[in-house]
Every structure is written in structure tokens, then in C-alpha cells.
Amino acid sequence: MPAKIRLARRGRKFSKIYTIVVADGRAPRDGKYIETLGQYNPNTNPATIILDFDKSLEWLQKGAQPTDTCRAILSYKGVLYKKHLLDGVKKGAFDEAEAEKRFQSWMTAKEQKIQAKVDKLQSDEDSERKERLEAEAKVNEQRALEIEKQRSELLKEEAEASSEAEGETAEAPAEEAAAEAKEESPAAEEKPAAEEKPAAAEVKEDKPSDEASEDKKEEEKPSAADAKEDKPAAEAKEVKEEAKEEKPEAEEKKEEKSASAEAKEDKPAAEAKEEKKEEAKEEKPAAEEKSTSAEAPVDKKEDVKEETKEEKPEAPADKKEEKKDK
Questions:
Q1: Which helix (H) or strand (E) covers residue 10, if one does?
Q2: Is 102 inside a domain boundary?
Q3: Is 149 inside a domain boundary?
Q4: What is d(CA 317, CA 310) in angstroms, rounded to the nearest whole number?
């Protein structure tokens, strides 16, 4: 069975790398191989290919059959095109110089295409990076504007708070000044009053001699008032003496009333009537005595005492009779 140019897997999981080998067609993929021709890494863009050009051309001329992936790699590197030109030299279509010239022109064109692709990919990356940076710059600007707004609001609030504090501090001295002014105003009012007093004293000193005569008249007036005050004092003494004389009569009347009240409680209705008559008779002489009391108050007192002495022993006898009747 002919030899094959194929890929043998190497590398790790999710990062595979292949080696280009020449192996027996009956050998497994990652098994025994005859010779390595290069390396293929599909993880990059464009894919990186490391190939031994002369060895691969030699194995193709010997009759090794490449797999599809290896054929695309060999075509990409120009190995198949070089084999085609050498076959044309063998047939005599053109010489080796012409074949070399055609191969070099093809290689330059191929390299230009590869370089154009790389440049395009690079430019695409740069444009993407720029767009990304512009978007980030816009976001940063928006954030900066928001931060500035917040700072401006904070500064305004701080300025308002400081202005309010300054206003309060300014109001406090103003209030203190107003209070001091109020306290000073009464003192200022008192000073003119004190100044006016000496002026009034000066006016008094300048009065004419008429004022002296008026003062003498005023001194004479109190003497007359003292004489008037002495008269009511004498009258008051007389009234007090009369009141003292009338007090014993009032006390005697109270005693008579108390004795009669006690007698009324114990006597029956008939006896009560008789006592009322006797009291009426006794009151008549008392009235006559009152009329004469102004002339002889001392005789009245003696008569009243004798009458009370006579009445007092009669009351207990009446009480004993009442008890017996009961």
C-alpha cells in the first residue's frame, strides 16, 4: 500500500495542533509514521503553516498520496504548482529557467494575497478597537457629566447651607445689637429726666417772694385742721361711754329671754299663755324704765338687778309644780 501525507493530531483539548507526516496507509492516525514534513496550526487567522518544501516535493515525486487537507496545504504553499512546472520541463514544454521564473511570479502574487488578507484582518481589528474605544469614551463622558452634575448639586447644597449658616450668624449679632439698643434706650430716657430735675430746681430757686407768703398760709392751714380733728375725738369718747352704759341692759334682756325659753319648754299650753301675759306686764315697766334711763342710768342698773333677783327664785318653784302635775 502506498505511503500517505496526512495530519497527526497533537496539542491539548480545545487547542489542537497538527503535524504533517508521511506514514503507511495502514497505520492509525496518531500511530507510527515515516517522516515529519511540517506543522499546521488552525487556531490562528490566517492559519500558520510550517512546511519543508523540498521534502514534500520529493515525496510527491515518489508517489505519496496526500489527503484532502494536506493537498490544500501543499497547494497553498505552491508545492503542487512546482511539481506541475517540473513535469512540463520533462516533457520539453519550457526549460527550467522559465519554470523557475513562473514559479517566482506565482509566489510573489500569492504572498501579496496573503499579506493583503493579513492587512485586512489587521485593519478590521484596528477599526473594531477604535469603535470600542470611542464607545468607551462616550460612556466615560456620560459618566463624567453625571459626576459633574452630582458635584455641582452637592456644591450648591453646601453653598446654600453655608449661606444659611452665615445668615443665622449675621442675624444673631443683629438681634443682640437690637436688644442692647432697647436696653440703652430706657437709660437714655432716664438721663434727660435727671437733667430736667436740676432745671426744675433752678426754676424753684428763681420764684419771687409771693411763694414765701403762700408757704406761710399753708402752714397756718394745718393748725385749723388739727383743731377740727380734736372735735371728732371728743365726740367719739362720748359715744363710747353711752355704748358701755347700754351693754348691761342688753345682757339683762338676753338672760330674761333664756330663762323664759327654758320655762316654755316645760310648761303646758295654758301656763305658757299666763307667762306671756306676765312677760307683757313686765315689759311695760321696762319700757318706762328705758325712757328714764337717760336721766338716771345708775338707778336703772339697781332696779334691774333687784328685778332679776326676784324673778330667779320664782322659776324653780314653777318647775317643781309642773313636775308634780305631770
A1: strand 3-12
A2: no
A3: yes
A4: 12
Q: Which of 139, 160, 189 is the last residue of a domain?
A: 189
pLDDT at 220 > cutoff 90: no
Edge-to-edge strand ranges of the sheet holding 15-24: 48-51, 35-41, 15-24, 3-12, 65-66
What's the sign of the alpha-carbon dihedral 239, 244, 250, 254? positive
Residue 111 lies in a domain: no
Whole-number Å distance between alpha carbons of 22 and 17: 17
Q: Which residues of 113-140 are buried (b: 16+ CB within 10 A; e: fewer)?
A: eeeeeeeeeeeeeeeeeeeeeeeeeeee
How confident is the model at residue 278, as a pLDDT?
Answer: 74
What's the CA gap between 94 and 103, in Å, rounded? 13
Measured CA distances, 90 to 78, 86, 93, 94, 96 (Å): 19, 6, 8, 9, 9
**Tally of domains in the chain:** 3
Instruction: Taking each helix axis as running N to C, give the angle between helix 297-325 and helix 269-293, from 0 to 180 degrees, rounded to the nearest 10.
Output: 180
pLDDT digits over 15-65, tens only? 999 999 999 888 888 888 999 999 999 998 889 999 999 999 999 999 899
Whether the upstream peptide bond of residue 46 has omega within 30° of 0, thus cis, is: yes
3-class SS string, 232-271: HHHHHHHHHHHHHHHHHHHHHHHHHHHHHHHHHHHCCHHH
Whether 166 has a pLDDT exceeding 70, the answer reads yes
Burial string for 69-92 (b: 16+ CB within 10 Å, else e) reads ebeebbeebbbbbbeebeeeeeee
pLDDT at residue 272 greater than cutoff 70: no
Rounded Cα gap, residues 316 and 305, in angstroms: 18
Q: Determine the Cα–Cα distance for residues 212 and 195; give it in Å rounded to an integer.
A: 26
